[in-house]
Amino acid sequence: MKCLVSRRTLRGCLALLAVGLLASGCDWSQFGFASSHNGDNAFDTSISPTNVSTLISKFTALSGTAANGPIAAEAEVNGVLYAASYGIPLGFGLTPTLYAFSANGTSGCGGTPVTCSPLWTASLGANTQSEYNVAVNNGVVYVNGGPGLEAFDAAGHTNCSGTPTVCQPLWQASATWTNGVPTVSNGAVFVTSNGDLEAFDANGYTNCSGSPKMCSPIWTSHISSASAVATVSNGIAYALSTDGGTNGTIVALDAAGNTGCSGTPKVCSPLWEYALPNQVSGSTQYVSVSGTTLYAGSSRVVSLMPPDIEGSFEAYDANGVSGCSGTPKICAPTWTVPLPSAGPPLVGDGFEFPPLVGGVPLQAFDANGSKKWTSSVEASPLAIGGSVIYATDFTNVFAFDANGSTGCTSSVCSPLWSTNRPTGSAEVQNTIVANGTVYVATQEESGVAEILAYGLP
Is residue 55 situated within a structural domain? Predict the structure, then answer.
């Protein structure tokens, strides 16, 4: 595995340093890779368009195990792969669980082919939601568990015991979650809770007390949040809100909890907002940021018969300057592409890859919203790493040259590699790329969950 510092990587590195979130090596630390959620691990150049075709199966985690609901590979940090099951527990006898595995298929692994058992686990308890997600930072794993936000020792030592090892939280934050996926940036953990955006001390000190330790937010914003995930970039926290405008807005807040914030407990108001061209809906769960551009995407069903879906994805000035005016300040899109999208695009190598709705090919757009290339197969984007874009038809994961060069003719690109799984295989849940390994999480209807790890020979 190699992490080469190219000019592009150096720019990304400096940007992450600016928000205090420099990943260790080529790690994937949280949803969408980093707090900006653009899905691009620009640091890991081990797998490239020239060698991705040689990827082979390395090991399988949870092979043949009926997991406690569907499982997703959420993060890979310091040689440990973290995953969470997120089945609805009530009435099904399922207990959502946090898993930690050896990321390179060594500890807790064996056999031919190699299969891995967890290094440690933690029960996340019942929750009112169906998804459980993980973020890892400074030796702590954050997860939106049953009681609310929970923090665990990433090494599986503190508050952990037994054989096999089971861990209890270092601290918790009680809440009623709408989805609450944790985002970590610059010493704070951001979650959405019951329509609010909340920020907690990531170290579990400020506003924390008791045994077991319980924490309260260091600041809150009552924004009628519609986001499953808060996005943080360059000191600004972004979240979707059902308030404002005809269709709701994206709000921008001071992530440090200073400007626009007051009172005890501290409450923050938006610095500015972004007008949405389409109504906030269940398909609109978060936004992403790359450089100085903020991206959003949405879709909604207009009619079932005949089938009619409308929506778009759009770009805004992340700094709240271009296209912005009024008091309070409202920002309009700098460009819009009228294609229904299940969320914001993945962004890497100068291209945007929106998760378009309707079983269509993967499509790549440039910084101005102009389409540059299309895949030869139907596929939705999952992750970017080493100038390779990974996408899925929900049975297989395909790899394409993100730049639209290798394997491409007349702006149509063929897969450079595929998991090559037979029709009827377990459905792909998600994919992350870290330290020279592609992790693909799958789930059978029977409940059997697996994480398939692929790497270079």
Answer: yes
Instruction: Give a yes or no: residue 83 inside a domain.
Output: no
Query: How many angstroms separate the CA atoms of 168 and 172, rounded?
Result: 10
- Residue 350 lies inside a defined structural domain of this protein: yes
- Structurally, the chain folds into a number of domains equal to 1
Instruction: State the CB neighbour count (10 A cutoff) for residue 365.
Output: 21
% of the chain beyond a pLDDT of 90: 68
- Per the CB < 8 A criterion, the answer to whether 71 and 443 are in contact is yes
Range of the domain at 366: 30-61+345-443
Section 267-290 average pLDDT: 83
Q: Report how far residue 216's alpha carbon sits from residue 174's, in angstroms, rounded to the nearest whole number.
A: 8
* Straight-line distance from the first to the last Cα atom of the chain, in angstroms, rounded to the nearest whole number: 11
Picking from 286, 78, 271, 94, the residue whose alpha carbon sits closest to that of residue 182 is 286
Q: What is the residue-wise DSSP string for 31-87?
A: TTBSTT---EETT--SS-TTTGGG-EEEEEEEEEEE-SS-EEEEEEETTEEEEEE--
Cβ neighbourhood burial of 5 (10 Å; 0-12, 13-18, 19+): exposed
Does residue 69 surpass a pLDDT of 90? no
Is residue 205 within 8 A of residue 216, CB to CB? The reply is no
Question: In which residue are the tokens 């205090």 written?
Answer: 20
Is residue 277 very low, low, confident or very high in pLDDT (cuts 50, 70, 90)? Answer: confident
Residues 256-276, buried b or exposed e (16+ Cβ, 10 A)? bbeebbeeeebbbebbbbbbb
Q: Which two tokens stand for residue 35?
A: 């707090």
Phi, psi of 242, deg, nearest 5: -80, -10
Look at residues 122, 132, 339 and name the one whose alpha carbon lies nearest to residue 229: 132
- CATH at 396: 2.40.128
pTM as predicted: 0.91
Q: Is residue 42 part of a domain?
A: yes
Give the whole-angstrom CA distance, residue 378 versus residue 363.
Answer: 10
Count how many residues are written for the chain. Answer: 457
- Predicted local confidence at residue 97, as pLDDT: 87
